[in-house]
Amino acid sequence: MSDANSPQDWNALAERVACHVDNYLNGLEAVARGDGGAHTIPLLLLEVSQVILAGAQLGASADVILPDNWEPEIGDDPDLDAVRTGLSERLGDLDEYVEVFDPYKDTEPTAYRLSDDLVDVASDLVHGLRHYNQDRPLEALWWWQYSYFNHWGNHAGASLRALHAYVANDRLAVAQEAAVAQ
Pfam families this protein is in (predicted)? Predict the structure, then answer.
């Protein structure tokens, strides 16, 4: 990435992030509808991993500063409760997990729900995407970067660890069972 922070550089980053955001939102909605079937957890792991790449790009970039130091109004964000409910139904008992939210400040594990975390990420991302779709890429980047550091990055990271743990435990259990059977 360039350190130039030119509008052209910001536009290119905004386009890359918007693509990741759009893919995440579409993938999350598809899984919430049940399109993932038996592959729900691995698909969610893939979606979260890919959107975390966008977050890493935002984190590695210089701070996005709005010229007027304020965010233009874009109206109410869409209601994502149907996605949250669909994910909760698909995840079942796997929806709840335990996480230490900030390993540098927290000492006690806290219970979380994957469906809540995944939709919290989506909510922050869709807000920025609305700026992007209204031809305001700098505002979109500012929001995505700010909310990545302040909110959705933590929720995406926590859900990634939970999803990874499930997939890894599932795959390792199968490998261990196959080894015992031989």
Answer: DUF5063
Residue 39 near residue 166, CB atoms below 8 Å: no
User: Amino acid identity, residue 157?
Assistant: G
Non-local (6+) Cβ contacts of 170 within 8 A are 41
pTM: 0.86
Residue 148 tokens, joined: 């990545």
Average confidence (pLDDT) per 10 residues, the chain, 182 residues: 58 96 97 96 97 95 85 85 98 92 79 96 97 95 96 95 93 61 54
Buried b (16+ CB within 10 A) or exposed e, 1-25: eeeeeeeeebeebbeebbebbeebb
pLDDT of residue 4: 46
Identify the burial level of 178 via C-beta atoms within 10 angstroms of its C-beta, where 0-12 means exposed, 13-18 middle and 19 or more buried.
exposed
Burial class (CB in 10 A: 0-12, 13-18, 19+), 64: buried
Distance CA 44, CA 163 (A): 7
Decide: 90 and 32 in contact? Cβ < 8 Å.
yes
Token pair of 33, please? 């509808």
Alpha helices by DSSP H, the chain: 7-33, 40-60, 81-91, 114-133, 137-147, 153-181
| 78 phi, psi to nearest 5 deg | -65, 155
